[in-house]
Amino acid sequence: MSSQDIPEENLPAAQDHAHGAVTVADEENPFADPGLPPHEHRIQDIDERAAKRSERAVALLFTVSMLATIGFIVSYLVIPNDKSIFVFPIGHISAMNFALGLTLGVALFCIGAGAVHWARTLMSDEEVAAERHPIAASPEVRAKVHADFKQGAKESALGRRKLIRNTMFGALALVPLSGVMLLGGLGPAPGTKLRHTLWAKGKRLVNMNTNEPLRPEDVAVGSLTFAMPDGLEEHDEDFQNEIAKAALMIVRLQPANIKDKRELDWSHEGIVAFSKICTHVGCPISLYEQQTHHVLCPCHQSTFDLSDGARVIFGPAGHALPQLRIGVDSEGYLQALGDFEEPVGPAFWERG
Asked: Which residues have CB under 8 Å from 333's CB, separation 6+?
C-alpha cells in the first residue's frame, strides 16, 4: 500500500523545509544540484494500524531479547561445564558454550533488529538538506542541535509508544547481566586446592612407565624413576591438572651421601621422592646427573641438589623442590606418608 492509495486528506501536512532547489549547470558551476527527490510517506506514517503492527514487532524483538538473556543466565547456572553435545555439522562441542553463544547472540541480535525496525518504520525518515558549517559550533548551531534533538525525541514517539519504550528498557537493562554472569567464569575461587595434591597417607607410588606399584628393590642406586599416585589414570578427565601437581621423581642414594637430615628422615633406605615440577615456571624436570646427584630443568637450566634437600644451586628457580615423605606398606610397596608440606611448582604467593 503506497501513499498514492490514501485520500489526500489523510496524508500528513507538508513540511515547511524544502528538499533542495535544482540549479542549472553553467560555466562557473558545471555540476547541477539535482536536489532531493520528493518525499514518499511510509504506510506507517499514514495508517495507525500499520504503525501499531510495527510497534508490536519491535516490542516482540525486545521481549525475545529479554527471554534470551534469561536463557543465558539459566544456561550458565544449570548446564554442567563438562557436558558435550553433537551439533551438525560442527561435531561434539561444549553444551554450555553452545547455549551461552546462542542465547547471547539472540539477545544482542534482537536488540539491534528491534532498533533498526523501529527507526525504519516509526521514526521520521524525511531527508533534510543542511549546509556544512565550521567545526567550532556557534551559539546558533548549538541551539539548533538542541532543538533538533528535542524534535527527534518528539518524532521518535518514545513517550507515546509506551510498549516499545518499556520493552526496550527491559532488554537494555537485562542484556548487561550476561557480562556479569561471565565473571563467574573467572572462578570458582581456588580455595586451598593449590596447596594440596592427590598424595595422601597410604597412597602407593606407581611407576609412570609401567603403571605398576613400586617396591624398594625396583629402584636401583643412581637410577631416576618417575611416579604418580595410585588410582590416577591417563584417561581421567582431570589427569593433566592432577599430574601437574603430583608428578614425582624417585632417586635412590646411599644414605651416607644424604646431607640434609629431614631428607634422610623422609626417605626409605636412601630412596627419596621429590616433586618433578620445577619451582621456576613449572617445567617437568627430567635430567639427572648420577655422580653429582643434581637434577636439571631443561627449560631454563635451574639445577637442584637431591642430596641436600633439593636446594637450588644454579638458575632462576626461587626455592627447593618439595619432598614427599615415603615409607612401605604391609605388602612391601612404597607409599606416601602424607601430602607435600608446601605447594608444588612455581613460587606461591602465600608460601611460608
From this structure: 204, 205, 213, 214, 215
